[in-house]
Structures are given as structure tokens and as C-alpha cells.
Amino acid sequence: MSLPSRTKHLTTLAAAAALVLTGGLTPSARAAEPSSHIANDTVWKDTDGNPILAQGGNVLKVGNTYYWVGQALAIGQPKAINLYSSTDLENWRFEKAILKQDGSKPYLTYPLWLGRPQLIQRPDGKFVVVAEVNNGDQDRNQILFATSDTVDGTYTPTGDPKQVNGNTTGDHSVFVDGDKAYLVYVGDVGSGQSKQINQTVNVAPLNDTWTGVLPEIYTESSAHKEAPAILKANGKYYLFGSGMDWWNATPTSYRVSSTLGGWGSAPGWKQVTTRPASNNSFGTQFEQIVPVVGQNGTTSYLYNGDRYSQFYSRPEPAPGGVGLNAWYPLTFDNGEPVLHGHTDVDVDTTAGTVTGNRVANGRFDQDVVGTTIPQWNTTKANGAAQVQESQLGDGRRQLALWDDAPYTSWVNQEVALPNGTYELSFDYRSSGGQTSAYFEVKGHGGSTPPVHLKTAQSAWATKKVTFTVSTGKVNLGVWTDSPAGKWLNIDNVAVWPAG
């Protein structure tokens, strides 16, 4: 979501988001505790305890280490391209800012745009960063190349940023296929006042040094696509892209072909299937699919998504939730990509597997306060079920069941689970005094007693339930039947294999 004109919208931010996104962050007093999984719908922190700032970038594996580059999109401050490293894709160490708006070049000067970095490694071992720079040409982008002998070294621009095949661009990525590399980009059409932005999707080879762009091998008119990227999987080439809706999250679409550049003869763009159903990629914009290749060759895939709602400044509420990044498992069903909205993702880089807490939006943080509850069904709610901020000042968003009139409410989600034994956990608070209030686990092929929650509980408490699945699914639900003014809060719903 790199359209530089969008920087004009970076004017109104929630106070919390502004604190997260400032460039002058004070280092944490102590290192963050190691994480055992990726926690979506949270603000991720590096191993020093500072928020990870890596918008619009990519992940590159070098040896046994993954390197993640992205933009430090600071409000009202010079921009930079940050580099992080990890061996498990769950814990990230901040290495350095490898390219900054330090005024060393006219195009590396604030307030111009510097974003959407792509890190690649040439066959000769040298590293290349491909970034977009706005040089003031009608708020549109040109492409900059910078190289370094080492992944964490000094990246030196190879020349001024240039237009691509005669015009400016929108979003881009870089696809490496053997010893060849390709710029995958959204192109503008026309010039001057008649310029039309984001009109084409293109694939163009890089030159022999991977520091310039050759004529396209594929181009299509596909207005209002963004964030194009290619994944080679199952012997086929998948071209992914997002929708174009300013800072909003959008659905992810794809095309597939048996040859690079062969999408013109294949079926048109199709939306990626989401489980459970989501019309906006679980509150994100697509950036990249990260292959996770195990030592025995087993390969799984992670969807790398950015969450830009913090930069949305229109009068209506921002269309998104907590966190700057969200990564989800991506699988293939008979060759068709399927995106799974796991709240937590457990990556085993040695085994090449991606599993996790399959409950979607289990933190109730995937949208703004006071809206509907993505991924959860609400019935008999009488307006009583919504997302609210915790009254305890602990920064939580929570499912809140409450009304100033008598109410009933049923909030549930069906979760697909391989047969086996699992542990459900959730946090709750309750005013007590409801006629009936409980958390129910059903539809899994067995009988699990409901967890009653109508006893007063002012502080957060955790409940755990073990159950066995023989039907390939479970239905998790919260029921209340209550007089006026009584409330129940639920948070952090998780299901993990038992033991």
C-alpha cells in the first residue's frame, strides 16, 4: 500500500498508534521474553522489546537465518528501511536501518517517499535492495537499487531512481527464479494531468547485475490492483495481488499458470479462499508468501500481511484492528490457495511446518471498538454483543456482553480441527447475576459440560477445558441470558493440542 499520495492522509492518528510508530522510540529497559509463536492482532516487538517497524517489505532466507526488511513508517519524521533477523520466524532481532532519508542524496530526503523495500541475493552473493522513491513527480514512484557485500552491511545506491519502462509505478515486489530476478509491479499509464495510476500489472526481468529493469515479459490491464507478488509452488507460478482501497484491508486475489508470464491464457483473477470466511484477508493487505522449508524438504507457507489501519484518517473509524503485521498459514487445496485466519501461528523451521491456534480473531482485536465481531457469529444479541476496550486500563479489547435492558446473546465460531485431543483456554470477567451465562464446547463428537460464568469475577481469570474431536471440527460459543446491566467479558480464546 505504497501510493505516496496516501501520505497526505497521515495526519490523524490514535494516540496509541502514534506512540508505536514514532521513529524516536526509547529502547526497552529489558529484553522481551522469547516467543513460542506468532501472535496476530498484537503489536509485535523485537528481542529488545521495541515495536517492529517493517511495513511493505519481504523476508529472505540466507543460510539458516531469515532476514526481514520493511519501512519504518514514522509520522512526521524521515523514513528508513529496517533490517531484522530471525532463525525461527517468531523472534526477531533488530539489526540496523540499512537505508535512510539522511539527506545524502536528493532522493533520500524527507518528506519524499521511501518504501516497499525488497531484499534479494544475487548469484554472486551480493545483496540488493529494491525500493520505491517518490521524487516529487506527481506523487508517484520511481525504483531505486542499492547493493551491499553483506546482508547487514552498507547499502550504496547504484544510481538515481528511475522510472520503469517509461512510466512511474505503484506497488512492486521482486521474484527470484533460479539465477533470474524479476520486478513485479503495478504500472501507471499516461503522463501529466492525464496520468492514470495503478492501471497495469507487469513482470519485467532485471538486468544481469539485478540493478536495472528490462522490458516486460508480461503485462495486463488490471486497474486497482496493488501489492503484486509471485510464488512458485506445486510446479506452478502463482501471481497474487491485493485490492486497492487506500489504507483499508482488502481481499487477496490470484492467478495461476504453469509458466512464468502465462497468466494471460489462464482464468482471470480469483479471490483466495479464506477459512473462516473473511472479506478483507483478516484485516490485512497482502505483501508476500514466505516459504518455510524444513530440513527434510517439507515446505509450508506463511502469508505476510500488513495492517495499515493506523494511517487511516477519514471521519469514519479506521477499518482494522491492533497490530502492524499479521502472518497466517497458507495451504493449497487441489492447487487452490487457502488462507487460514489463525490467531496464533506456531512455526517449526526445522520441520518445515506451520500450525497454531486455529481460532480466528480470538483476541477480538481484528476490528475497531464498537463494530461487528469479525469471524464470530452473533445471534439473539439484541445489540448486546460487541468489541469494547477493557475497563481495567490494561489495553485489552474484549468481547463484551451487556445491555441496559434485559438481553440474551449467543456468540459462536466453528473451528476446523484435525481429530485429536485439545485444550481450550479463555479469559473472562463477569458482574455475576445473569440468569444464565456459560462458555460451551460442542459439535466435536463428544460431550463437554459448559463452563458456567455467572459468578461475579472482577479481575481477569482463565478457564481451561480439555476435549476430544472426532468430527473434524468444534463449535465454541458464549451464551448469556441476563437482566439489564449485568455484563460478561471474554478474551484470548485459544485452542491448542493437549499435552
Main pleated sheet: 5 strands, mixed
Total number of domains: 2
Radius of gyration: 23 Å
How many beta strands in the DSSP annotation?
A: 34
Top CATH class of the largest domain: Mainly Beta
The neighbouring-strand order within the major sheet is 18-22-21-20-19
Range of strand content: over 45%
Give me the CATH fold name of the largest domain.
Tachylectin-2, Chain A
What is the 3D form? Answer: elongated
Mean pLDDT over the residues: 90
Distance between the termini: 41 Å
Corresponding CATH superfamily of the largest domain: Glycosyl hydrolase domain, family 43
Individual helix count:
1
CATH architecture field of the largest domain? 5 Propeller
Secondary-structure-derived class: mainly beta
Q: If you had to describe this structure to a student in words, what would you say it looks like?
A:
This protein has 499 residues and is mainly β. It folds into two domains: 4-356, Tachylectin-2, Chain A (5 Propeller); 377-497, Jelly Rolls. The protein contains one helix and 34 strands. The strands form eight sheets. Strands 18-22-21-20-19 form a five-stranded mixed sheet, with no helix packed on it. The two termini are 41 Å apart. Mean pLDDT is 90; it is low at 1-29.
Write the layout of secondary structure elements.
Blueprint: H1 15-21, E1 38-39, E2 55-62, E3 65-72, E4 80-86, E5 93-100, E6 114-121, E7 127-134, E8 141-148, E9 156-157, E10 169-177, E11 180-189, E12 196-205, E13 218-221, E14 225-233, E15 236-243, E16 252-257, E17 270-271, E18 273-275, E19 285-293, E20 299-306, E21 325-333, E22 336-340, E23 344-348, E24 353-357, E25 377-379, E26 385-389, E27 397-401, E28 407-416, E29 420-430, E30 436-442, E31 451-452, E32 457-469, E33 473-482, E34 488-497
Parallel strand pairs: 18-22
Antiparallel strand pairs: 1-23, 2-3, 3-4, 4-5, 6-7, 7-8, 8-9, 10-11, 11-12, 12-13, 14-15, 15-16, 16-17, 19-20, 20-21, 21-22, 23-24, 25-28, 26-27, 27-34, 28-33, 29-32, 29-34, 30-31, 30-33
